[in-house]
Design a protein that fits this description.
Mean pLDDT: 85
Order of helices and strands: EEEHEEHHHHHHHH
Low-confidence stretches: none
Largest sheet: 5 strands, mixed, barrel
Radius of gyration: 20 Å
Distance between the termini: 54 Å
Helix content: 40-55%
Length: 187
């Protein structure tokens, strides 16, 4: 498994690079966002190595959050590496996280290769997707909100109702969020 590559760029296109790593030239597919950030002739990328029956491909990322996004999305049934790269090319990891948390199907349909059904499936499977690049406070708040949502859903409340109520809550930690949301849900 190849998890990273460092070397000199021999050829650069918007969706792939040819990287010379000590005499071996690798073709590495990248998102348009990643490609636009590469300004020097030397590059170090984190990679995802996908081996299929008929092909072996490397997908490269400058940002670990973009790699996490790619690796998470390709696990969804019906989403392959091309669509995952299209998502990475269309959205930054933080904007994608916001789209998932707000359940915005119309934004997700802007990605080439994703229709209404695919967008719905992705949003359902990725509810709770959080990136690591957020500040510690924002990240812990998002984690607490996710835990509170899961707790309330396990009590039988519907997901959309829970998310609307949690957005109106002011508490920070999980226990207080659940208590506050329960009070609002019982009104």
């Amino acid at each position: 498994m190849i998890v990273g590559i460092e070397g000199k760029i021999e050829k650069k296109e918007p969706t792939f690079l040819h990287i010379n790593a000590n005499g071996l030239i690798y073709e590495v597919f990248v998102s348009i966002n990643c490609s636009s950030k590469i300004t020097r002739n030397e590059v170090k990328l984190y990679t995802t190595h996908i081996i299929r029956e008929d092909t072996q491909n490397l997908y490269g990322f400058l940002d670990l959050n973009e790699k996490k996004l790619f690796d998470t999305v390709i696990k969804i049934n019906g989403v392959g590496p091309k669509v995952a790269l299209a998502i990475c090319s269309t959205f930054t990891p933080s904007s994608f996280s916001q789209i998932v948390s707000s359940n915005d199907i119309s934004m997700l349909k802007r990605v080439p290769g994703i229709g209404p059904k695919g967008a719905s499936r992705i949003l359902v499977e990725l509810s709770g997707f959080v990136i690591d690049g957020e500040s510690d406070d924002e990240s812990s708040n998002a984690t607490n909100a996710l835990e509170a949502a899961l707790a309330l859903e396990s009590l039988g409340f519907k997901k959309d109702v829970v998310s609307k109520v949690l957005k109106t809550c002011v508490s920070i930690n999980t226990g207080e969020l659940v208590k506050e949301a329960l009070k609002k849900l019982q009104k």
